[in-house]
Amino acid sequence: MTHYRCNRREFLNLSGACIAGVVSGPWLGAAMAAPAQEAAGTPRDPDLVVLNARVSTVDSRVPKAEAFAVKDGRFVAVGRSDEIKGLVGKKTQTYDAKQMTIVPGFIDTHNHGRGEGLLYNVLVGNPYDVEFVTIQSIIDKLRARAATTPPGTWVEGYFFDDTKLKDNRGLNAQDLDKVSTEHPVVVRHRGGHTGFYNTVAFQRAGITKDTPNPYGGTYDKNEKGELNGRVTDLAMATLAKAGPLESFSPAEKEKRVSNGVAFISKKFVEYGLTTVHHNEPGVLAAMQEQRVRGGLLHRVSYEPAGDLLEAMIQNGIESGFGDEWIRLGATYEHTVDGSFSERTMAISKPYIGISPPYHGNLTETQEDLNAWAERVHRAGIRLNCHANGDVAIDRVLTAYERALKLYPHGDVRPKITHCSLINDDLVRRMKALNVVPAEFSTYAYYNSDKFHFYGEEMMSHMTAFRTLIDAGIVPSAGSDFSPGPFSPLMAIQGMVTRTGWNGETWGANQRISMEEALRVNTINGAYNSCEEAIKGSITAGKLADFVVLADDLHTVDKGKIKDIQIVRTVAGGSTVYQA
Ligand SMILES: [Zn+2]
Question: Residue 493 contacts by C-beta under 8 Å, 6 or more apart in sequence?
């Protein structure tokens, strides 16, 4: 049996996979107009030349350029404006960038971007940026939903952030009792590892203050020892029994998922993302449908879970299967511990100010993890585990070391999603396996209000871009949306400053340079899915994915990077977003 390896020679697909229905504008269809079979690297009669730009190529051989040419969806020449001008042919469109900055299309290596939820769910917080809300606004929104929901059926709120409340106190069960005494009600934290429930939900699930915590989760209590409404990690599974979710016919469901794909794809390119690693089961068919309809504007590394992962194992489909638009990537994040933002990750030192001492939640035993890793890796599918705390990362590395030793397949780049709290020993073991971490990208900016829960000593080893890069590891940017906003510019600002929206700076020792932050958000993302030969930099022969920015990343005030306007996003030579 042959196995997918990252160092296998990539076939350059020159047949010109094209997308229809892109944003109208001067470049509409440009990439598809020319005959498709000319060899890449032949710069005659390009479809498009871009001149007079400040190009950060992220290609270390030619880091800066003024111009480039695109043909059949790929870059065919990169250089000075006078050189590239000489390539203009009869059908070539010319774009004068007027000294604007151009960078490669951004890549997000961990994202649960399910547009369906954004379109149809009750959103009690702002998915895209820092915004404070009141508990009353949450109650009002959920009451409105309860009014149209049959009694006994769940009423759910999404995108809650416990540190973005104007009330200066926590959300509790009594607040949610005001929503309904006939419906189970849950407000889901955007981090995905905690929920806040009303009394009806606990009653219907048979949970009282005396119910012991299950493995890998907690039913939290107030000072009086009563259930306060907050439930963590695996304990949420017990609450799910409290009632049915709103249901839809298969046709309705299909339509919702498909509309969701089109919605979020538009959002991604609006923020400059041209590739996203998708962690959400059940949307592959909708993505393919939207691709045909012209609604898929970004490239997808699809991370399989459940039935799909099983089908791949059973039928010999390995990571890397697919094409330049939709490709099967590493597995869905196999979850080993709790959350960073919700403070349930498994850490060796106890959390500050919690008694009895709390070390977070481990949600998978070493034995089960070893068996899972062995089976998946053996099938030629790239490993990917969610591990935040040092205790969880140790457990994942143990399973990876074992699986890769049992079945050596060469350079397979096992992935660790988040990989938040590290130490020297973990870094050494990661380097030895060439583990590719997908680090939280926007947290340094967005979640700076939560870092006091860990303290500066721990934060100096958290989301440790500086340490990882210095060790020769290739960290990439994984927003984890919903938990974090997905704006790559917000991510870059946090990486170079380590300063958050509230002005607090944590772990300043982990700052990286602008050049490094650009790499983390582009070429390192391509490396993460073993696609660095075809994307991630502005290099002749690679896919023409790039972003035009209104300001220069290198000269703008570092505190204003996130506000730079995205002027245009281009995927495969076609404009997919225009301001
Ligand atoms: Zn995730």
Answer: 445, 558, 559, 560, 561, 562
